[in-house]
From TrEMBL:
The active site is at 244. Belongs to the aldehyde dehydrogenase family. InterPro entries: Ald_DH/histidinol_DH, Ald_DH_C, Ald_DH_CS_CYS, Ald_DH_CS_GLU, Ald_DH_N, Aldehyde_DH_dom. The lineage of its organism: Bacteria, Bacillati, Actinomycetota, Actinomycetes, Pseudonocardiales. Keywords: NAD, Oxidoreductase. Signal peptide: none annotated. Residues 36-466 form the Aldehyde dehydrogenase domain. This is Aldehyde dehydrogenase.
Length: 472
């Protein structure tokens, strides 16, 4: 396959523009144009916040708009999937359904904002105190390139539900799907200025948003190193920060696990979404008595995964997002060859001479000191390591700087709970994967994040809670 064979979706925008104060606009000219574009977008969001109806609408009225957004988003599933697959290299079958997930985020926060209750405290005979919840202000939303539209919705929905106005800065690698938002919001009746979009690179547009004194909060999803930089850059203006960062999540498979289910899940866990998934189970720890069988069956499965044109419905692993990312992932594969035993993959698939294609790659007997065990690769590459006891498994599971997700496979439920609770991870799946209840906390510990979103935690992040005290 060559680049000229690439399927090009219809109706692609001819050029990407910013969206500010209800209008599509081009970049301003000048050396610091990204900063000026961000200024313009923040001013629009600020005006809509200070003077517009959105923050003052009844929750029920905002919920109606959010439900309309959800319906429109869902009706664009096919177009979104085509664009997302074209822009990011995601297999088309996995890009389909992203719109449904995005729509669910809007429906969920529409329900939640209507059901929102706030606390009241009574000191008998003396005082009544209550919480006056208010939207925080202008929300800066900075998002990554993996499943970009869906991840944007995860921030847009609670920010808008809470009554904030927003400036979205999508990832520069995948700006295409974000260009669908302006029309969707317009059609749903979101007032001008409530939603603003600035395209630009992280170090300029993202940075300007982070440092802007009129932005009250930043919700960021991306790499841990970027998160650290944003944390420092936001300090002078004391912003609220929510950080969903990188991961190197373990899948721990005990000898008493349902092996068929564990293999299915751990194959899916690292090779779906091209391995470009924050919660990927990229380290598989397997108890010694089943290690050889697990490895044999896993390797066989990995070798049969179909890599190819993202637009082909038979494709299971598509093309990585960008040549830069391709170089990073293949660089790790070369490092892995010096650190552990290569059991499957390890390079470019036969017949795919150009494009960012990588074979599903399995390293076995990987020591915990290996870089491929410790560092986030964010591609279709997995490290498998044996263990002999629960204690050793726990040590291995926790022996990385990250703590986003973990997966535990065992038929002993007592062990599953006890072991799962001791893992340093924000989210643990027992004998399951990838099922998310939107009410639960989402986020990581250690280098994987700061703060939690999900359910009322998201609404709390996007609002201020003012304490009102009344003497009786
Ligand atoms: P990235 O950190 O390179 O970029 C993310 C966003 O930050 C982009 O929009 C980028 O333009 C912007 N950015 C970059 N530098 C910036 C700066 N100095 N100031 C402000 N903004 C800046 O991440 P990526 O490569 O786009 O995404 C992949 C990473 O995201 C992986 O580490 C993955 O694990 C993580 N991720 C985490 C979650 C989660 O929920 N924890 C979800 C998806 C992805």
């Amino acid at each position: 396959m060559t680049m000229t064979d690439q399927h090009v979706p219809q109706n692609l925008p001819k050029r990407l523009q910013h969206f500010v104060a209800g209008e599509f606009v081009d970049s301003l000219d000048g050396a610091t144009f990204d900063v000026l574009d961000v200024d313009r977008a923040v001013a629009s969001a600020r005006k809509a916040f200070d003077e517009g109806p959105w923050p003052r609408m009844l929750p029920r009225e905002r919920a109606r708009v959010l439900n309309r957004i959800a319906d429109i988003v869902e009706s664009r599933d096919e177009r979104l999937a085509e664009w997302e697959s074209f822009d990011s290299g995601l297999p088309i079958t996995q890009a389909l359904g992203q719109a449904r997930r995005a729509a669910e985020n809007f429906r969920f926060f529409a329900d939640l904002i209507v059901a929102q209750a706030d606390d009241t405290y009574k000191v008998p005979g003396k005082q009544v105190n209550y919480v006056n919840r208010k939207p925080k202000g202008v929300a800066g939303l900075i998002t990554p390139w993996n499943t970009p539209f869906m991840l944007e919705s995860w921030k847009l929905a609670p920010a808008l539900a809470s009554g904030c106005t927003v400036v979205l800065k999508p990832a520069e690698f995948t700006p295409l799907s974000a260009s669908l938002w302006p029309e969707i919001f317009r059609e749903a009746g979101v007032p001008d200025g409530v939603f603003n979009l600035v395209n630009g690179i992280g170090e300029e547009a993202g940075d300007a948003l982070v440092k802007h004194e009129d932005v009250q909060l930043i919700s960021f999803t991306g790499e841990s190193a970027t998160g650290q930089l944003i944390f420092a850059n936001a300090a002078p203006t004391l912003k609220a920060l929510s950080m969903e960062l990188g991961g190197k999540s373990p899948a721990v498979v005990f000898a008493d696990a349902d092996l068929d289910a564990a293999i299915d899940s751990t194959v899916f866990g690292v090779f779906s979404l091209n391995g470009e998934r924050c919660t990927a189970g990229s380290r598989i720890l397997v108890e010694r008595p089943i290690y050889d069988e697990f490895v044999r069956r896993y390797v066989e499965r990995a070798k049969n995964i179909k890599v190819g044109d993202p637009h082909d419905p038979a494709t299971e692993v598509g093309a990585l997002v960008h040549p830069e990312h391709y170089a990073k992932v293949t660089g790790y594969i070369e490092i892995g060859k010096t650190e552990a035993k290569l059991a499957a993959g390890g390079g470019r698939p036969e017949g795919l001479e150009s494009g960012n294609y990588v074979q599903p790659t399995v390293f076995v007997d990987v020591p915990p000191t290996a870089r491929i065990f410790q560092e986030e690769i964010f591609g279709p590459v997995v490290a498998i390591t044996p263990f002999d006891s629960d204690e050793e498994a726990l040590e291995l599971a926790n022996d990385v700087k990250y703590g986003l997700a973990a997966y535990v496979w065992t038929s002993d439920l007592e062990r599953a709970h006890n072991f799962g609770q001791r893992i340093d991870a924000g989210m643990v799946w027992l004998n399951s994967h990838n099922v998310r209840d939107l009410r639960t906390p989402f986020g990581g510990v250690k280098a994987s994040g700061l703060g939690h979103e999900g359910g009322y935690r998201s609404l709390d992040f996007y609002s201020d809670q003012q304490a009102m005290h009344i003497s009786l």
